[in-house]
Amino acid sequence: MLQKIDETTMLGRGPIRVLYPGLKTNPNDTGIGSIGRIDHAYFIGNQIVPMHQHVNDEILSYFRSGKTEHRDSEGIVEFIGKNKLMLMKAGHSFFHEEKMIDEGEPMEGLQIFIRPGVKDLNPEVLFLDLDETYSTNKWRLLASPTSETKFKFSSQTWIYDIKVLNNNSVELPEISNSNLTFLLYVFKGNATINNTISLNKKESLVIQNEEILITTDSETELVLFVTDENTAYFAEGMFSGNKMN
Length: 245
What we know:
Elements: E1 2-5, E2 16-19, E3 35-43, E4 47-54, E5 58-65, E6 67-72, E7 77-81, E8 84-89, E9 94-101, E10 107-114, E11 124-129, E12 140-144, E13 151-152, E14 157-164, E15 169-171, E16 181-188, E17 190-193, E18 197-200, E19 204-208, E20 213-215, E21 220-227
Parallel strand pairs: 12-13
Antiparallel strand pairs: 1-19, 2-3, 3-10, 4-9, 5-8, 5-10, 6-7, 6-9, 8-11, 12-14, 14-21, 15-20, 16-19, 16-21, 17-18, 17-20
């Protein structure tokens, strides 16, 4: 099954557009398995998102340009950007704020809300320094449910990224699990799937039980979300949870 989700499905105006991937595919759930919500943010200049709470969300901050100061209720202060990512595992309760710092370029990136395996875990914040800003023409595993990655989800969830140069093609990464659902998101550029489905920036594709070939005619940045919908996850997190109820 291949199901395209175009940009018109995204909610919100201003600097943040919100993708609930299940709105297009599931009448009963705004998420797809453990993939609860994806925010595409674009801030210009000095801006602040004041201190706010998260409960039972696991949030990967994936910024590709700009610089942001993170400050939280645990007393942690850290700068994140295109070479330093952050995973907040909110658990039973966690507060943080974000201050966008104007250094001559906009802050653009994703905040990815993943559903935890169980509710009310202890909060934790992790940071990841990337060896390279981009992974060119090769999928890079950023987070997984195993100790294979520093960023470890409590649910069966994987996140990859890749920068595909123009006139190149890639397939999906191999994962030793046959019961997976893939969500391919175009962060920048455009992609063609199996020579038939065109995806532009902020568009995505749900993939189940399909072999695909991704081709590009321009420099393109992709993020791939993978979930096992047959395993346990808590679907009532503050931001990641199902909003149909």
